Amino acid sequence: MAETTEWVSAVEYKKFLSTARENVELMKARYTDLMLTEEDEATLKELQNEIRILVLGTDSCDDTSGTLPVLARMAATAPKIQLRILDSNKHVHYHQNFKVNGKRKTPVVLFLSSDLQELCRWVERPNAAYKLINEKIDPSLEGRKNHLRKLYSDPEILRQSLGEFMNLLIRADFILGRH
Q1: In what order do the strands lie in the sheet with 118-123?
Q2: Alpha carbon 23 to chain centroid distance?
Q3: In this structure, what CATH number is given to the domain that contains residue 85?
Q4: What SS3 state is found at 115?
Q5: pTM above 0.70?
Q6: Which site among 15, 17, 113, 148 is 20 to 30 Å from 65 CA-CA?
Q7: How far apart are CA 155 and CA 98, in angstroms?
């Protein structure tokens, strides 16, 4: 369950970008490059319930910088979505609650009700990115970072992220009582 203090401490996307030190231009480009179809826009505008999205991540994380612009575009289109970002390095105590296989992963994307009850969760990267990462050729940290940057510049990966987030938004809307 998200606590009110974490939501209040979290910042909106524009503020996050203005204070970010890494991957800023990549996030701006990904935001601009993501094309929403008319169907995507209609689905986002038809959400019936307020849904808050809290992202635990950091600007230095390639997965966060790859997926956060997708969420930001969705939130900019949907009047019922509020998006905030909580720095996972500054809020380690809270981030500890969301370990996967005993490890902290970023980003963690929490889909919350207006009273901050967790409805669903998404962690780290889209399924297609996992597949490509598992097929990686260069196992070095720098090789992996370069691979991730290139991966998140692929329009198909951005579309898959969008699809995964859309499914969770619709699920959250139904949990809250979509008619």
Answers
A1: 81-87, 51-57, 108-112, 118-123
A2: 15
A3: 3.40.30.10
A4: coil
A5: yes
A6: 113
A7: 28
What residues make up the domain containing 37?
4-175
Number of separate domains in the chain: 1
Per-residue pLDDT reduced to its tens digit, 114-170: 999 999 999 988 877 776 666 665 666 677 677 777 788 888 888 889 999 999 999
- Identity at 109, one-letter amino acid code: V
CA 163 to chain centre: 12
CB count, 10 Å around CB of 102?
A: 5
Q: For residue 83, what are the contacts with CB-CB under 8 A and spacing of at least 6?
A: 12, 13, 52, 53, 55, 71, 72, 74, 75
CB proximity list for 21: less than 8 A, separation 6 or greater: 59, 60
**68-92 average pLDDT score:** 96
Q: What gap in Å lies between CA 114 and CA 167, rounded to an integer?
A: 19
Determine the average pLDDT of the residues in 16-31.
94
